[in-house]
Amino acid sequence: MNNALSSGTPADSGLGTTRHGFELAGTRFLIPLGLHAELSARPPICAIPDTPTLLLGFINHRGETLPVFDLDRLTGSYPANAGRWVLRLGKGAEAIGLLLNDLPHGLLGGEAAASDAPPPSQLSPFCGQGYRQAGEQWWEFDHPRFCAFVRHQFGTPS
């Protein structure tokens, strides 16, 4: 199962914009507008020894090698149903896979909430603009900042 998630496309109802979000270690993230996103069932992951713990390994995604990360490991959380899905974000050299425990949520609209501070967690550096949807706080996933963090983990200059 491979599904492209068209984050930021107009909703059929005309009431607003449909966004897709996912939850990692209790933090709700939105896929940034315009960022390529694709969801697939978790394929076999080829582990690489002596790498940072958040890198699970690599998968073959349509003939391309894609690194897969488990952000729950940054918080020390290891859920029982760990990673049934891989969410691909970005294209080319900036493409990453994130392990998800649950399917992403479809969200309609949402109000920007710039005054809310990101949650205090290991994931807060990857929280971009905040949004409120149905009383819940969501944060745009800061894909460029996460890629820079990964490069730093491997000792590669940004």
Keywords:
globular; 1 helix; 13 strands; 158 residues; six-stranded mixed beta sheet; OB fold (Dihydrolipoamide Acetyltransferase, E2P); mainly beta
Provide a brief overview of the structure.
The chain has 158 residues and is mainly beta. The protein has one helix at 143-153, and strands at residues 2-4, 9-10, 17-24, 27-30, 37-41, 55-61, 64-69, 85-89, 96-100, 105-108, 111-112, 127-133, 136-141.
Give the arrangement of secondary structure elements.
Elements: E1 2-4, E2 9-10, E3 17-24, E4 27-30, E5 37-41, E6 55-61, E7 64-69, E8 85-89, E9 96-100, E10 105-108, E11 111-112, E12 127-133, E13 136-141, H1 143-153
Parallel strand pairs: 4-13, 7-9
Antiparallel strand pairs: 1-5, 2-3, 3-4, 3-10, 5-8, 6-7, 8-9, 11-12, 12-13
Describe the fold and architecture:
This protein has 158 residues and is mainly beta. The chain has a domain at 2-110: Beta Barrel (OB fold (Dihydrolipoamide Acetyltransferase, E2P)). The chain is built from 1 helix and 13 strands; from the N terminus they run E-E-E-E-E-E-E-E-E-E-E-E-E-H. The strands form 2 sheets. Strands 2, 3, 4, 10, 11, 12 and 13 form a 7-stranded mixed β-sheet that branches. Strands 1-5-8-9-7-6 form a 6-stranded mixed β-sheet, with no helix packed on it. Strand 6 (55-61) and strand 7 form a beta hairpin. The longest helix has 11 residues, at 143-153. The termini are far apart. 27% of the residues are buried. Mean pLDDT is 82; it is low at 6-15.
